[in-house]
From TrEMBL:
This is Glycosyltransferase family 8 protein. CDD domains: GT8_A4GalT_like. The chain crosses the membrane at residues 369-386. It comes from the Bacteria. The keyword Transmembrane helix applies. The lineage of its organism: Bacteria, Pseudomonadati, Campylobacterota, Epsilonproteobacteria, Campylobacterales. SUPFAM superfamilies: Nucleotide-diphospho-sugar transferases. Gene3D superfamilies: Spore Coat Polysaccharide Biosynthesis Protein SpsA, Chain A (3.90.550.10). Pfam families: Glyco_transf_8. Keywords: Glycosyltransferase, Membrane, Metal-binding, Transferase, Transmembrane, Transmembrane helix. GO terms for molecular function: glycosyltransferase activity; metal ion binding.
Amino acid sequence: MIKQGNVMFHIVLNANENYIKYAAVLMTSIIQKTDLNKSMSEFCNFDTDEGYVFHILSDHISESMKVRISNLEKQLNDIYPCKIVLHILNDDEFKGMLKWRGNYLAYYRIKMASVLPQNLKICLYLDCDMLCFGDLRELLSVDINNYQAAVCLDGNNHKKNKKVFFSLKGREKYKFSNIEKYFNSGFILVNLDRWRRDNIENKSIDFLKKFKTLYPDQDALNFALNDTLLLPNRWNFSLGYFVAFLKNSQEILFLNQTKYPHLNYTKTEFENEVKNIKIAHFILDPFKPWDAFQYSIVNDDLQLIEYPFYKHYWSVAKNTPEFYLDFLVQKESINEHKAENLINELGKAVVKEMRRYTSRASYRRLRKSIIFLYIINVILIIYVVLNH
């Protein structure tokens, strides 16, 4: 591990004003999962102060929101020592680049080594659409002294997945030569000394100015970071793969099943990761927990499946200091659309069944499926009405 002196564990988040409440849920889950019976020194072999420093990189935070963030900090600090530090960044350096969901916020992680105190040796970057299920201080025992960062694979890390980027000007193109190590940028345990020394920030920005990208910051960081340590995916568990697995266990191809697996581990290893998730990442699926009704999945056996970790997320959200009332209002709005969401999902299932059974021999099964879905639909509508 990296010796960094008497400082706390620094965690970096990107969030605009609208996303602060989701960052608050993540911070709350981190505090909740910190084992208060253990000290920071039990996870590392160097002297360090107890607690977290959460750095929020943003484009603008109003004065009223700053007050709320301060209140959040005070209440979380009553549970476990922590600080929340705001950093307002300028977009000018990214002007002309491709925006991600309407803004440049995703790029801010590229600049974290410049923004954070220069005496810091290590930090952890996390996306806000995450939920913590383990004690993050375990990461302090990971030795990244000889690496630029520790990361988790993104998925589809095989040679058939050819990532080629074409120049914004001219005919030049760039192809990743080591797709097997392409990582998801939602989790990065950073060796800040190497990040600065290897000029990762400028290399990433130069790449973005030069090439068309699909996932701008992620593609740029994969270009710039060429000496990374791979961690088990339990530290950045993409729930989209789990959703696909729940819908149809045959839909996800694992290592040893094909030359081109979706995930670089076996089915048994995947199931073990599910049981030992440290950080759940709500990506690779259309629904965030704050957008969806909890029974949003209909599997291939026409069973309603609870959205993974939906209840866990809302349990934390409803207990997030300063922002819990926001989430109660938001949850009520979601509840108003329960029936509509369920009908949409069941309708998709009917269409899927119709595509599967097109011959006369399978007509009876199709008819039974439609009748089954209709009955379930009626039952669910009655349930929603009675529980509204």
